Amino acid sequence: MAAAGPLCPGFYSQTCPQAEAIVRDVMRKAMATEPRSVASVMRFQFHDCFVNGCDASLLLDDTPSMLGEKLALSNINSLRSFEVVDEIKEALEKACPGVVSCADIIIMAARDAVALTGGPDWEVRLGRRDSLTASQEQSSNIMPSPRTNASSLIDLFSKYNLSVQDLVALSGSHSIGEARCFSIMFRLYNQSGLGKPDPAIDPGFRATLDKLCPLDVDQNVTGALDATSRLFDNQYFKDLVAGRGFLNSDQTLFTFPQTREYVTLFSNDENEFFKAFVEGMLKLGELQSGQPGEIRTNCRKVNSQAVDV
C-alpha cells in the first residue's frame, strides 16, 4: 500500500492510454441523459480534495465500522450523480483493470464537466491513489455551508494555500448547476435572525426566488445557480454584481471588499476567469494526505471489502 508519488500529466499514457478519452465519453453521455449531472460530478473535486486531500474518500459508502462522507452535513441530500463515477470506473476496469484510481477519475471528470459545458479545457496531473478510509466528522467540520460569508471562506481556503483569487475563481464552478431551496430559505425570510430578507438580493430577483421557494415549499426543489446554468461562462459573476447570486456564500463575494475586485474582474473578462479557474483547479488537485492508498476496483468500497461481497 504505497502513498501516491508526484502527480504528472500523461500518467496513464503507457498503462491505460485511452483513460482520459473513456472518462470524457461517459461524461458526454451522462450530460446528454441529464444535463445537470456533469455539474454535480464537478462538485466532487471540491468535496473530496478539501477533506484529507484528493483521495476519493468521498466515494466510499458507509460500512458497519466506518461512517463515510456522503452523509456529512454539507453532502447529505446535496451531492448526487455518484452513479456517473460508477459508470466511468466500470468502463475503465473493462479497458485497463486495476490501473486508474477513483481519485484520478474525480479530477478528470471535473475537468470534463467544465470543458463539455463551454468552459476551458486543460491538462490534468494524475497519479493519485484511493484512500482506505473516510471521515464523515472531518467532512462535516471542514466543508462550508451555503450560509458562509466571504471572510470565513478566505480563512478556509488559506489553510490549503489557496489565495483570495483562487477562492473567487473556484466559486465560479457555480456557473453550472443548481442548488436547493433549503440552502436559501434563511436568505429569503430570516437573514440575520430578523425575519427579513437579505438586503443584498436584487428586489426583482428576490421576487423570482420567493415564487420558486415559498415558505411552505418542499426544500429539495432546486433553482439555477446563475442565469446560464448549463453553460460554463462568466455569467455567474455578472449575476453577483447585479445582486442576483443564488447562495449567500456566492453573493457575499461581491459584498465583501477583499473578494469584490476579483468578482468585478471576472464579470468583465471571461478569459481572466477561465485562466484563474484552471490555475485554482490544478492547485486544488494537488492536495494530498500522504497516507497509503490503493487502486480501488469499485469506487464505493476498499478492495478488501469488494472481495467479500
UniProtKB/TrEMBL annotation:
Its main location: secreted. Belongs to the peroxidase family. Classical plant (class III) peroxidase subfamily. One of its GO terms (cellular component) is extracellular region. It catalyses: 2 a phenolic donor + H2O2 = 2 a phenolic radical donor + 2 H2O. This is Peroxidase. One of its GO terms (molecular function) is lactoperoxidase activity. Ca(2+) 1 binds at D48, V51, G53, D55, S57, E69. Heme b binds at H174. Keywords: Calcium, Disulfide bond, Glycoprotein, Heme, Hydrogen peroxide, Iron, Metal-binding, Oxidoreductase, Peroxidase, Secreted, Signal. The record marks R43 as: Transition state stabilizer. Removal of H(2)O(2), oxidation of toxic reductants, biosynthesis and degradation of lignin, suberization, auxin catabolism, response to environmental stresses such as wounding, pathogen attack and oxidative stress. These functions might be dependent on each isozyme/isoform in each plant tissue. The active site is at H47 (proton acceptor). Binds 1 heme b (iron(II)-protoporphyrin IX) group per subunit. Binds 2 calcium ions per subunit. Substrate binds at P144. Its EC number is 1.11.1.7. InterPro entries: Haem_peroxidase, Haem_peroxidase_sf, Peroxidase_pln, Peroxidases_heam-ligand_BS, Secretory_peroxidase. The keyword Phosphoprotein does not apply. Its cofactor is heme b; Ca(2+). The lineage of its organism: Eukaryota, Viridiplantae, Streptophyta, Embryophyta, Tracheophyta. It comes from Hibiscus trionum.
